[in-house]
Structure formats: structure tokens, C-alpha cells
């Protein structure tokens, strides 16, 4: 399946939150909120629609829970990046970096240097 | 309590989210819904504060809807395969929605009709749920009972308990984990900005433990704190008092407050709740008196049965003790028995229960009428859409599919109707609370909770099925190919469907007649109550209560009453002032047995019972009550033996029929202390126990020389009662600034309050009946107008062939009125059967009151005639030539 570029924000956010870890949906929500310092959040509706789509597109894959998982409770699906997902994340980051460079030249972002 | 609220908030939040999640594509929901809800719930719990949580719920719900629509849009674009079953339902729904949107007038009427029916049901059910179905706020309430005394020999079935009998039951029973008592009273709270009169509950130490209540703050009384000789100046605040007068101060425990001039240590605050927890503003220990008496019936007693004990077992145990007490203390306890009332009967009295059931029945009828109306509309529409269905059938739709389409439409209608109905219900519940007559328990707790939503969902489903089933049957019946050939002309829906429609009209008329009769009976009763001879005047009269502290001895009470009366009586515009020991129209009071000294004593169980009051001279004049014989009290009539009393006319007639009662000896507290008294006067009868009660049997003592508080002052002025209020306040302030003046009310207001719950139920039922009437009329009109429009050409032919306009008019009206007449007859039969259930709510009329039945039948019949006449007139305007050309 073709991946639409640029990636939609939720897809990119999930990629960022997941990183190289194995996480379930709720943990992805929490992680994302933590890395943005609470400024941005993933809401459950968007999250699970996005997860379903990303699995379909081969960006992430469902996997077994990591050893020593203590979350307990109802069974949950865990996810990790696929090679394809990692590539898509890298490409998107590269694209954003180019855009940020332009923004910097326009003096919109004086503080952000290389 | 706050955990309960938090849990409710959370389940509501989850419900909202789940509803929003319906927007998600089926595949996503199927796979992820559970996990999604768990994630939602956990995130929800991380938010703090009501606003934070509410904001999160809204954002998450909106996001789910957005994500759902986005996903659906992508799905459709990518042409991915869908599940056939779901897509078919979806297709039906979309088709149904499109057809409904295409005829907005019909849809609006249908939705509104259903919203009224469903909304009224949801609102009344929410009241029933709060009043009758919600559990009591106590631990294991099924083990709790109320314990009352009975005196079979005196004909008392349920009486408060005397102190000594209570302590004996508490000590000797073997079937209870605990037994406790409450005595009502009142007390002055002072030492703050202004004095306040509080309802006081004196409770034995175990009272709150027996109920199984956890205090909101501090503790409740501990075992032994009611022992004789203990310093019992401890107070537990009701939740209401704590919030109202102490600003919910969380540091209140340990503080000292002043009650009737004495310091009391606050040890705890109760949670909110009914009953018992709101029985008083403030609770103090009921100190056990070593020589408690068996003569005054003051205590309300509750008990927690031991595990495994049945009601019958506990009753047998207590009655055994009662028999022993009767043997030990024959003078006071002869004939003593004990009756138990399970806690399930605590909240709602029999009359409230009855009224609610009647209201529930009424809204049930209303919904039935709404359903019938809509079924009729749908049928008519379905007949008009025969051609459309024929086309669909020709294109390959099966009969089942056609029927399902009709059902889907009616379910869709009732769903939208229910959504609107819930909004209506919300408004109705707010109105109900605003009109609270004060006698419906737990009304403040009424809300549209999950139970109510569930009930509404069920009612909606039933409504959808009921309204849709006939059109669905019709859709599956019939010769579709023939229809396609002939077109729509002459399709009146066939003889069978015509009959079905008539039957529906008859049902509708019958149901609304029954409702109208119910409302009419209550309306007539209310009129009777208001116009019944009260025996006293209310105009320009005001009543105020002054509670005197215990430091006022009999002398000081007498001086206070005399000073206050003189001061107020001297104000220009005041005609007369008097004092009385008990306010009228309260429905409770003090009582005693009585008999004539000069007649043979009646059997112990035939001793009549009279209420008693202390009054000052001029009391009867102030209330406009005549002294029919003898004289009024004077200041020289001191309350001391031998007693001199005034009796009401009924007492005099009862003891000395056709004889003069003045100068006779009457025995008071007959069967107890047997006190003789001389009758010096006979006063007119008053309905002072309640307007719907018989005039009371009453005995009046002089207030002079009595130490009896609180004192009620009645003032008769020659202008509005508003002008009297400041006069009273000023006079009291001058005499003793530390005394509170409470419950200042005009007698008109008092009368209004005493009939408030009657008026409340009457208004509700009348509203429902009016809506039902409108719906039924709309139904009759709709069916006939439709039938006429279908028969245009027939009418044209009749007119062309020489029928007179009058004959055609008569024909059509007669046809329309036939089902109405059948419905009226059936309705009268039904109402005769059902109205018997209302007997206890009626006053002055019987449930078969002919005036009501005739009036209602005339009203309904006349209105139906009008709704027949209008379409019939329309029919006569038929253009004969055009009609014939069509033929």
C-alpha cells in the first residue's frame, strides 16, 4: 500500500511516541503527552483509527508484550516499528527539517540552531 | 457519597465516549472498542477537577466522531469491502433518513408526538426511580425496620412509643443487633449573628450505628453516651444545617455551639440522605431517664434485625416482650402490641406511592396514544407510498426487505423522538423540582441517570416496534404488481386497513378518555377541598411562631404572651391577636381520649380521641370561629385543677347529643389519667387537621398558667398580611431580642401549603390529559382528513348524482364518529374500572362521579365532532367536474 506523503500528524506522532520500544495504545498516548510536555495529546478515537491504518500500511506491527510487562488488566495489543515505519519516520523528519531551515531563514525561529 | 458521584460521573463519561465511538467504522470498533474504552477511562482518571474532566470527555468524544468520519471517508474512497449485514442496515437507515427528510412536515409532527410521549415517561420514571427504586443510604437496609406500638383495645394501629417501653424493648429483645429511638423537638441556636430555630432530634446513642451511617466528618454518638448522669452536651449536625448555617466548615468538629443557652460540643457531621438523616437539623443524645414514663407516646423507634432473623421472628420476639410489659404495667400498657414496618416502606408513604403509580400509568397511556397516532400516520403514508414500494419490489426488493424498511423508519423516528424527549424530560424534571410541594421524598435527588436512560431506550424500542409493525405488515401484504398497473388511484388502503385505522382511533379515544376522567376527578376533588367549609377564616390573618427557652417559667410565659398580645394589639390596623399552642393544618398534633362523666363509660376500644390545644382569650374571635354556647376564656381561667375547657361542637354533640354541654363534666385522658374538667363553652368546628379531613374533635385549655412552648400567635388585621409582618418583628425585638420569630405565614399561605401536593399531582395529571386530548384529536382529524382526501372522486360522483350536500356531510361525519363513539364507550368502561385505584386521592366525590364522566365524554365527543366536521366541509368543496374527469 502506498504511503501518503507528507505523513498525517497522528501517524507521525505515533511513530515518534513508539520510537524503538514495544508499547500498547494507552502507553503511546501517555508517552506522546510526556514528550510534548503535555502541550499536545493523542485522543483515543484518533489513536486507534490511526493504529489500525498504520498496521494496514505496514508502518507498525502488532507483537507480543515485552518480557516483564506489569500492566496487567485486560489484554492489550502491543506494537513496534517496522523497517518501513522507521524509513517513513526518517523521511518525514527530514522533510520537516528542511521546512524548519526555511523557517529559520525567515527569522521565525531565531533560537533554533543546528 | 462523593465516591458514588465520581463513579457516576465516570460511567456517564464512558457512556458519552461510547456513543461518540459509534461514529467509528465497524471494523475499528469491533477490534479496538474495549481497549479504547480502557485507555479513555485511564486518561479520564488522570484529569483532575470537574472542568478538566468534562473538557477531556468533550474533546475525546469530538475526536472520536471526527476520526470516525475521516476513516469512513477513506474507506469509501479506497472501495474496501464492507460487511454486507451492516451495510444493509446502514442502507436502510440512510434510505429511511432520506425519505423522512423529504417530508419535513410529517417528520416534525411524528418526532414531536413521540418526544412528548417518551419525554413524559422518562421524566415520571426518573421520579419513580428516585423515590421508589433507589436503595436507602444505609448499610444492609433490608435488615432495618421501624418499630411502633399498637393498642388494639384503643383502636390504635400505629403509635409512637413511650420512653420506658422503648428502653425495655432495647434491653430485652433477642432478635436485634440494635434498637434506637428518635424524639423530635426544637431548639434555639444562638451566639451567632442572629438566633435560629432548629429542628432537634434527640436520639439514643446507637441510632446512627443501627442505621449504619458513616459520618461525613468526625463521629456519631458512641454506645453509652446516652446513659443517665453523663454529660450529654454533644451535637451531631445534619448535612443540611452544616452547609446552610456553617458554610460547610470542615473545622467545625470540636467547636462549641450554643443551644438554648447551653454549650454543646460538635462531634460530627452526617452525610446527606433521606429518611432519618434529614429528620432534624441537629442531633443530641436522648438521655436515658431512670424513671421514664409509659404515658407519653413520643419516640420513633428503629431496629436492625440480627442476621438471619425474619420480620415475623422479630415481631414475635417484641410482641412477647409487649405482653410481659402489659402484665407488669396494666395501667399504661394493657393491650400493648408491637408492629414492624420494613425499611422498604420508609421513603414513600402509601399515598405518594399510589400517586406515582397513577402518574406512571397516565404517562403510559400518553405514550400509547402517541404510538397509536403515529402508527396511523405511518399507515396512511405507507398507503400513499404503495407505488414507490411496488417499484422497489419490481427492482428486486423482497417483501421482507420492504417490511424491514418500514420498521427501520419507525425506529429511526422513535430514536430521534427519544433524543428530543430526553431534552423535554430534563426540562420537566427541572420544573418538577421547582414546584416541589415538599411532600415527595427525595425529589431533589431526581435525575436522568443510567437507569432512566435504560428505561427510555426500552420505551423507545417498544415505541418503534409498535408504530412500525402495522405499516410493515401492510408493506408485506397486498398485490404489488396490481398496484404498479393501476397507479395510486383508489388505493384507500383497502377495507382491512380502513378497519385497522378505525380501531386505532377507537383505542386513542378510549385511552384519552380514561386519562381525562382521572384528571377530571382530581380537579373536582381539588375544587371540593378548596370550597369545603373550613370553620375558620383566613383572610387578613397571619401566624407566627415564637419558641421560648426553658428559662421561661409558667409565669414568664404568661407575661410574655400578655405583653406581646398587648403590644401587637395596640398597633393601628390590628383587629385582634391571640396565642395558641399548636399551628392549624399540620396534620399532626397532640391527642387524648375523652368521655362524659355523667354517661355510662364506653368500651375501652370505643373511646373517642380528641386533639387538644392551649389558647388565650380571643383565639376564636381572631380566627372567625363562633362560640356557639357558653363563653370564651378570660385571664382568670388559669390552667389548674379543676380544669375548665372549651370543646368543639362535634365533641359536645358526641357526648351530649341534643343537650346543653355547658356546665357538664368531661373526662380527659380517658383510660390513662382520667382527669375531670368542666365545659364552659362550645366553639364552632374547624377543619384544622387538613382541609380534606373531617372537622376535628377538639378540646381547648386556657393558655394562662401554662409553660408551653413554642407559642403561635394569630393576628387579624384590616389590611394585607404583608403589613403585619414588620409589626410582629418589632414587638418581639422590643420584648426579648434573643428570641427568634420563625415561620411567619399568612393563613392563606398555610392553606395553600396544606393542599400543595394535591395541587401538584392534579396539575401533572391535567397536563398529561390535555396533551393526550390534543394528540387524540389530531389523530381523529388526521384519519378522517386522509379518508376524505382519498374519496374525493366518490364524493364528486355522489354530488353529481344528486345527493344533497347535507346528506354527504352527514355520511362523512357519521363515518368518522363511529370509531369515536366506540372509543368513548370503551373508555368509560376502562375509566370505571381504573378510577377505583384513585379513591384514596379523591375528596368529596366518588370515583364514579357522574358529572366528571359526563363532562369528559361531552368534551371529548364534541371536540372529536369538530375534528370530523372540518374535513367533511373540505370534502363538499370538491370540484365535481374535476373529480369525475379523474374517474
Topology of this protein?
The complex is a heterodimer of chains A (114) and B (887).
Chain A: H1 9-18, E1 23-24, H2 25-35, H3 44-56, E2 60-63, E3 78-81, H4 83-105
Helix pairs in contact in A: 1-2
Chain B: H1 2-21, H2 26-46, H3 50-77, H4 84-102, H5 104-133, E1 144-151, E2 156-159, E3 161-162, H6 163-172, E4 176-190, E5 196-203, H7 207-211, E6 217-218, E7 234-237, H8 239-246, E8 256-259, E9 262-269, E10 282-285, E11 297-305, H9 311-328, H10 330-333, E12 336-342, H11 350-384, H12 386-394, H13 399-434, H14 450-476, H15 480-486, H16 494-531, E13 541-546, H17 554-569, E14 574-580, E15 591-596, E16 609-615, H18 619-622, E17 627-630, E18 643-648, H19 649-655, E19 665-668, E20 675-683, E21 698-702, E22 711-717, H20 724-735, E23 741-746, H21 747-754, H22 756-790, H23 792-800, H24 805-834, H25 850-876, H26 880-886
Parallel strand pairs in B: 5-10, 7-9, 16-21, 18-20
Antiparallel strand pairs in B: 1-2, 1-11, 1-12, 3-11, 4-5, 4-8, 4-11, 6-9, 7-10, 8-9, 13-22, 13-23, 14-22, 15-16, 15-19, 17-20, 18-21, 19-20
How is this structure best described in words?
The complex is a heterodimer of chains A (114) and B (887). Chain A is mainly α and 114 residues long. Chain A contains four helices and three strands, in the order αβααββα. Chain A has helices at residues 9-18, 25-35, 44-56, 83-105; strands at residues 23-24, 60-63, 78-81. In chain A, α1 (9-18) crosses α2 (25-35). Chain B is 53% helix and 16% strand. In chain B, a hairpin with a 5-residue loop joins β4 and β5. In chain B, α1 runs antiparallel to α2 (26-46), α13 packs antiparallel against α14 (450-476) and α23 (792-800) packs across α26. At the A-B interface, α2 and α3 of A face α1, α2 and α3 of B.
Amino acid at each position: 500500500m502506498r504511503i501518503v506523503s507528507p505523513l498525517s500528524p497522528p501517524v507521525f506522532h505515533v511513530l515518534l511516541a513508539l520510537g524503538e520500544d514495544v508499547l500498547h495504545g494507552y502507553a503511546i498516548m501517555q508517552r506522546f503527552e510526556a514528550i510534548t510536555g503535555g502541550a499536545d495529546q493523542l485522543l483515543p478515537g484518533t489513536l486507534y483509527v490511526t493504529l489500525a491504518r498504520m498496521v494496514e500500511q505496514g508502518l507498525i506491527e502488532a507483537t507480543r508484550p515485552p518480557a516483564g510487562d506489569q500492566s496487567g488488566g485486560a489484554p492489550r495489543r502491543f506494537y513496534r516499528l517496522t523497517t518501513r515505519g522507521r524509513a517513513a519516520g526518517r523521511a518525514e523528519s527530514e522533510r520537516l527539517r528542511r521546512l524548519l531551515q526555511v523557517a529559520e531563514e525567515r527569522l521565525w525561529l531565531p533560537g533554533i540552531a543546528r | 457519597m462523593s465516591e458514588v458521584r465520581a463513579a457516576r460521573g465516570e460511567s456517564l463519561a464512558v457512556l458519552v465516549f461510547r456513543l461518540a465511538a459509534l461514529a467509528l467504522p465497524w471494523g475499528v470498533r469491533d477490534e479496538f472498542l474495549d481497549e479504547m474504552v480502557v485507555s479513555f477511562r485511564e486518561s479520564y482518571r488522570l484529569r483532575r477537577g470537574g472542568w478538566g474532566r468534562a473538557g477531556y470527555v468533550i474533546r475525546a468524544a469530538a475526536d472520536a466522531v471526527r476520526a470516525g468520519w475521516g476513516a469512513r471517508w477513506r474507506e469509501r474512497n479506497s472501495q474496501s469491502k464492507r460487511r454486507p449485514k451492516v451495510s444493509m442496515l446502514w442502507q436502510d437507515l440512510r434510505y429511511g433518513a432520506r425519505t423522512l427528510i423529504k417530508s419535513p412536515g410529517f417528520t416534525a409532527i411524528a418526532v414531536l408526538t413521540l418526544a412528548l410521549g417518551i419525554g413524559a415517561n422518562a421524566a415520571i420514571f426518573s421520579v419513580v426511580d428516585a423515590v421508589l427504586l433507589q436503595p436507602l443510604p444505609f448499610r444492609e437496609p433490608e435488615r432495618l425496620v421501624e418499630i411502633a406500638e399498637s393498642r388494639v383495645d384503643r383502636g390504635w394501629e400505629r403509635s409512637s412509643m413511650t420512653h420506658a417501653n422503648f428502653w425495655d424493648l432495647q434491653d430485652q429483645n433477642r432478635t436485634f443487633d440494635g434498637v434506637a429511638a428518635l424524639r423530635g423537638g426544637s431548639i434555639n441556636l444562638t451566639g451567632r449573628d442572629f438566633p435560629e430555630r432548629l429542628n432537634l432530634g434527640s436520639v439514643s446513642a446507637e441510632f446512627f450505628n443501627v442505621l449504619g451511617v458513616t459520618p461525613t466528618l468526625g463521629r456519631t454518638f458512641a454506645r453509652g453516651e446516652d446513659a443517665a448522669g453523663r454529660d450529654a452536651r454533644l451535637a451531631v449536625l445534619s448535612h443540611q444545617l452544616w452547609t446552610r448555617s456553617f458554610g460547610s466548615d470542615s473545622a467545625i468538629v470540636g467547636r462549641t455551639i450554643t443551644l438554648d443557652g447551653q454549650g454543646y460540643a460538635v462531634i460530627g457531621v452526617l452525610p446527606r440522605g433521606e429518611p432519618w438523616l434529614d429528620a432534624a437539623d441537629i442531633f443530641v443524645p436522648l438521655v436515658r431517664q431512670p424513671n421514664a414514663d409509659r404515658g407519653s407516646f413520643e419516640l420513633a423507634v428503629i431496629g436492625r434485625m440480627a442476621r438471619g432473623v425474619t420480620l415475623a421472628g422479630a415481631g414475635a420476639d417484641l410482641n412477647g416482650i409487649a405482653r410481659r410489659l402489659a402484665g407488669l404495667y396494666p395501667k399504661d400498657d394493657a393491650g400493648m402490641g408491637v408492629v414492624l414496618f420494613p425499611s422498604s416502606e420508609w421513603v414513600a408513604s402509601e399515598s405518594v406511592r399510589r400517586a406515582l403509580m397513577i402518574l406512571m400509568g397516565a404517562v403510559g397511556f400518553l405514550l400509547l396514544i402517541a404510538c397509536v397516532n403515529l402508527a396511523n400516520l405511518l399507515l396512511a403514508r405507507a398507503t400513499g407510498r404503495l407505488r414507490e414500494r411496488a417499484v422497489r419490489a419490481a427492482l428486486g426488493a423482497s417483501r421482507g426487505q420492504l417490511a424491514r424498511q418500514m420498521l427501520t423508519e419507525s425506529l429511526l423516528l422513535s430514536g430521534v423522538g427519544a433524543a428530543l424527549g430526553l431534552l423535554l424530560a430534563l426540562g420537566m424534571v427541572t420544573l418538577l423540582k421547582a414546584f416541589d410541594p415538599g411532600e415527595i421524598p427525595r425529589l431533589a435527588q431526581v435525575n436522568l441517570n443510567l437507569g432512566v436512560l435504560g428505561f427510555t431506550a426500552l420505551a423507545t424500542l417498544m415505541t418503534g416496534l409498535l408504530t412500525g409493525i402495522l405499516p410493515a405488515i401492510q408493506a408485506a401484504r397486498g398485490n404489488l404488481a396490481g398496484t404498479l398497473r393501476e397507479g395510486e388511484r383508489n388505493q384507500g388502503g383497502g377495507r382491512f386497513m380502513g378497519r385497522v385505522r378505525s380501531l386505532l382511533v377507537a383505542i386513542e379515544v378510549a385511552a384519552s378518555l380514561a386519562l381525562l376522567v382521572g384528571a377530571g376527578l382530581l380537579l373536582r376533588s381539588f375544587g371540593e377541598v378548596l370550597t369545603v367549609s373550613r370553620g375558620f377564616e383566613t383572610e387578613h390573618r397571619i401566624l407566627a411562631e415564637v419558641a421560648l427557652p426553658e428559662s421561661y417559667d409558667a409565669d414568664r410565659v404568661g407575661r410574655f404572651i400578655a405583653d406581646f398580645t398587648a403590644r401587637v394589639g395596640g398597633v393601628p390596623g390590628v383587629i385582634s391577636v391571640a396565642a395558641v399552642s399548636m399551628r392549624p393544618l399540620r396534620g399532626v398534633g397532640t391527642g387524648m381520649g375523652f368521655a362524659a362523666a355523667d354517661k355510662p363509660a364506653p368500651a375501652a376500644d370505643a373511646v373517642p380521641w380528641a386533639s387538644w390545644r392551649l389558647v388565650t382569650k380571643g383565639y376564636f374571635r381572631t380566627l372567625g370561629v363562633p362560640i356557639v354556647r357558653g363563653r370564651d376564656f378570660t385571664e382568670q381561667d388559669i390552667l389548674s385543677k379543676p380544669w375548665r375547657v372549651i370543646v368543639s361542637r362535634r365533641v359536645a354533640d358526641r357526648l351530649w347529643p341534643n343537650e346543653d354541654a355547658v356546665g357538664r363534666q368531661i373526662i380527659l385522658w380517658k383510660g390513662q389519667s382520667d382527669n375531670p374538667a368542666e365545659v364552659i363553652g362550645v366553639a364552632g368546628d374547624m377543619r384544622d387537621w387538613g382541609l380534606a379531613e373531617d372537622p376535628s374533635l377538639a378540646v381547648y385549655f386556657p393558655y394562662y398558667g401554662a409553660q408551653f412552648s413554642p407559642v403561635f400567635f394569630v393576628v387579624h388585621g384590616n389590611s394585607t398580611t404583608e403589613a403585619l409582618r414588620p409589626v410582629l418583628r418589632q414587638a418581639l425585638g422590643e420584648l426579648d431580642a434573643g428570641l427568634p420569630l420563625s415561620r411567619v405565614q399568612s393563613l392563606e399561605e398555610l392553606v395553600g401549603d396544606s393542599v400543595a401536593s394535591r395541587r401538584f399531582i392534579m396539575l401533572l395529571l391535567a397536563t398529561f390529559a390535555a396533551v393526550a386530548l390534543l394528540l387524540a384529536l389530531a389523530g381523529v382529524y388526521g384519519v378522517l382528513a386522509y379518508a376524505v382526501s382519498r374519496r374525493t372522486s366518490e364524493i364528486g360522483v355522489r354530488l353529481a348524482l344528486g345527493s344533497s350536500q347535507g346528506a354527504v356531510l352527514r355520511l362523512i361525519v357519521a363515518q368518522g364518529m363511529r370509531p369515536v363513539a366506540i372509543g368513548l364507550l370503551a373508555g368509560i368502561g376502562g375509566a370505571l374500572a381504573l378510577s377505583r385505584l384513585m379513591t384514596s386521592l379523591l375528596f368529596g366525590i366518588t370515583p364514579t362521579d357522574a358529572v366528571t364522566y359526563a363532562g369528559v365524554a361531552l368534551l371529548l365527543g364534541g371536540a372529536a365532532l369538530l375534528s370530523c366536521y372540518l374535513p367533511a366541509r373540505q370534502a363538499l368543496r370538491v370540484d365535481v367536474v374535476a373529480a369525475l374527469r379523474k374517474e
